[in-house]
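Question thread 4412

I'm putting together a teaching handout and wanted feedback from people who do this every day. The idea is simple: show students a protein as raw sequence, then show them the structure tokens that encode its fold, then repeat with a second protein so they can compare. Below is the first pair exactly as I plan to print it.
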Amino acid sequence: MAEQRHTIVNANLVVPKAKGTRNDVNIKAAFPNSPIHLGVVTDEERKKLYQELALDGIVLNGHGINSYDRDFKGTTQNPVPNLEDVETGGGGLPASPYVPNLASPGPGSVNAADQPVYEGELPNQDYNVEFGTGMGGLVSPSQTSAEISKQGTLGSYISGRSYQGSDGKA
């Protein structure tokens, strides 16, 4: 989080220029009732509304996605996934909780149900195969969800990390 707080909306007077630049007259004409132009919504109110509408609570199914808890806490009906519980093997199942089945279904078939068990070498869960910082792609959501949900509010996030310790450091 930046040490210096910044104004979220600060429309300066703009000198008309070539196409592709901001034109406040046109923006106000297109959105005349916007609270930005009316000056009735403060930056704190914007943050609070964003917290309520985008970060908190449970999203109920709709728009082609299943219901999920934005706080990553899970419920009895929809628990946080534990990748260690994923069934693996052949017949279209993944090779591991972290790797799809790479085995070919065989000559003339494109059906995943025909895939044998993948017998190749798989990444070791303790080996970080991802580039950059962090715990890598072999960490189960059940291990990270509780930590992510503890942050909860705008301004409490840690720059460059999901949560304290998620970069693999204490």
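The second pair follows. I'd like the answer to focus on this one:
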Amino acid sequence: MGYIERGGGMIKQLDLFAGVGAFALAGERHGVKSVMSVEIDKYACKVLRHNFPNMEVYNNDIRELRTDYVSEHHGKIDIITSGFPCTSYSIAGKRKGFDDPRTGDLFDQTLRFIHALKPKIFILENVKGLLNHEKGKTFGAMLTRMGELGCYDVQWQVLNSKDFGVPQNRERVYIVGSLRGECFRKIFPIRKNNEKYKVQRSSKKTSLEWVADFRNDEGLRIKKDLVSYTLLAQARQDGTAGQNIIKIKAKSMIRRLIPLECQRLQAFPDTWYDGLEMSDSQKYKQMGNSITVSVLEEIYKRIEL
């Protein structure tokens, strides 16, 4: 689809902690152009360059990127997105929050760009556990810091991917800030999408028939119903950590999810990796780290610029 023109030109977006482009893809489908993505993982950057050849990809530590570089090279930014790393807040991690020496300051890096570039909208995503980390004190501190920007109204909601067209139980908190004085309507709450997810059954290889419900000695997870466990970033091709498994009734056998199924569970096109050399292990990691595209699309539908 074409990009939407507003007054001075197209709606431009900056994606921080971009992963493999969930924000860029969802935005593009609603007329927003991601002009630059910031991502430290070199393999994720290969996917970004492959699918968005006209977008600048900054493959380095976000701390090294100057805010004035963005404005000098791309002009006015309308939307800033950030899927800032969740390991500091997730129950699967050590939950050190702001004190995490590796990732604790990355939320503030997001605010650095919002403060300097003054986008009309910012959209953030993180794990549901962010809300109860340190009994809510961490999220309260984040709201205070966002409030200290001085000119944004902030709203948020926990959304589950299974309510937005994909069979994956994935609860995440989505935060939207809007510049005061701009014409902007309320985004949340978003009610459950009435469209029932469509389980892919195009071939025996990609059938998603979930049964049983237990964790075996290898740490592999087998599901009993038609909704997958949350895809995990640490899932590996050899199944040694966090990989989901399905059972095919007709053959009385079990197998691991293939990368294509993980793409579908995150609402990415089947063609996302076509023509790109990428190991299955990287694909598992990237999909586990990503944001569900269909949830983001529902948010973009409600944004008015």
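Top answer:
Good format. For the second protein you could add a caption like this: The first helix runs from residue 22 to 28. The CA atoms of residues 115 and 148 lie 9 Å apart.
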